């Protein structure tokens, strides 16, 4: 099933639109996802992440545009798409009143896994989710991390070439999140295309490529490093000092500083140009007799990039 | 349609229904309780009416009359009173429902050949019971009067002139109200159980978020709908058989007609209830809402069906509504089969009505349901 379509891209989207009445949920979004890639979809709640994903899964029909998943058209081949994708949502969506095995059996049946493979696939899911001792436990009593792994396992029963994960780790503890992502890496290594939405910035860093969506529009796309270089208009300075509050007041009036925020035991300062701003900041600190231990230009985090992109969008839209 | 997917849906539904204590109670315990309640407690038969005797005459004739009341089985003497004041008190606090008062001149009037008066006072709060009590009392007193007359003229065969009414009740010779209510319970139970099962099982998937997972699988809407409704249909039949067995073997309700007719009619009846159940599931987001909507439909449907109150007694506007009530038709069929022993030749209009109503409701609900699913 993995090679049912030989195109280089697992997902292609061109000028995809979705309107609900007069509300434009997704506006002319275009992108492509390569096979075996971990593709992150980033954006605030209500930006259109889930709507786009639902269109690609064949759950809702787009208003306009074109899109294919594993070579199948979302308008006319929703049935084939559903046979070739796995889907897992942020909410645990297996049956809590069924046991681990009963859930797996149910989805095996729904996906029509051939009789001879059923047992193998079941054992594979149980092993992958680490639930060997809990085969007959109701899923309601399992901790969040285990449930998510089981849900992922059920979504992979039919060996889909593409899987869609809608905020898969929300509400899961950090250690489980970490091991969940290790699983995702494994899948990608096996050639499975992973399309994942998230609003955790650290998770976004794990993705091969990222698309940022805001107010229904695609505002940035690229690898995490590309995004940091290409879309960051400001330099970011890290200031470490003994009295961050005092420093914050000291730098507040400087026109070169576009934004200043407390960050750990210091400040992050967004400036137009690092080299010209540093002397001005040092001067301001000395005037107030404030001691600083470090002031340097740093690589912005994805969060800095994201905030910067959204702010420039909002200001160009006059918001 | 893929049979394998359907079978897995149905299997899962059954596991869920029987694993959930609430659903288990609805399916297994409720039919039993309802049949017991309607078999034993709900009865409009009037027996053992608590009665007070106020015998001012205290003569052989008055005691004769009192004996007649006691031996009729309809009246049970709770107390003997000696003053008018006590009548008010006993009726007010509901200790008795009837008071028989025999005036002191009772025997004297009989002896003198004139008409003696006897008073019966009943608690008219429950108008139905009061009416029945009065007619029983009337019969007892009439028989007493005839016997007094026979003694007086010395002719044991004397009968009053005029028209003598000979009564006979067909289909339910002893007018046992249980024979009327218990078969009706089958119809009510089947409706309630299938409405709840269908609507709750769909809404549960919405509420728990499992619906979201189901719609991304290759399952087709028709497989999903059948998977949800087949268990209701099966359990609807199981419940029908279960309550029928209780009726026949526990309560001795006669079954005079063909059970086949009942089965076929039950099938059409289930089309209507499952259609309504599906409809409720499309308008409810939580199981609680589904439960509320079910009772919002079920209670009026029960009241306007002839289950307890005859439709003929209702205002015409209300009667018009009852034509859209599947319970109305199924009750006629059930009582026809159980008590009258009639079959399709007589009951076809009701069976046809259920079929039309069922097709209509089910088509509409499935359409609405598929639209909601997308």
TrEMBL record, chain A:
SMART domains: AAA. The keyword Secreted does not apply. The keyword Lyase does not apply. One of its GO terms (molecular function) is ATP binding. PROSITE patterns: ABC_TRANSPORTER_2 (PS50893). Pfam families: ABC_tran, DrrA1-3_C. This is Putative multidrug ABC transporter ATP-binding protein YbhF. It comes from bioreactor metagenome. The lineage of its organism: unclassified sequences, metagenomes, ecological metagenomes.
From TrEMBL, chain B:
Residues 130-372 form the ABC transmembrane type-2 domain. It is a multi-pass membrane protein. GO terms for cellular component: ATP-binding cassette (ABC) transporter complex. Its main location: membrane. One of its GO terms (molecular function) is ABC-type transporter activity. InterPro entries: ABC-2_transporter_component (IPR051449), ABC2_TM (IPR013525), ABC2_TM_bact-type (IPR047817), ABC_2_transport (IPR000412). Keywords: Cell membrane, Membrane, Transmembrane, Transmembrane helix, Transport. The chain crosses the membrane at residues 180-203, 233-253, 259-280, 292-312, 332-362. Gene3D superfamilies: abc type-2 transporter like domain. It is found in: Cell membrane. It holds the Pfam family ABC2_membrane_3. Belongs to the ABC-2 integral membrane protein family. This is Putative multidrug ABC transporter permease YbhR. It comes from bioreactor metagenome. The lineage of its organism: unclassified sequences, metagenomes, ecological metagenomes. The gene is ybhR_7.
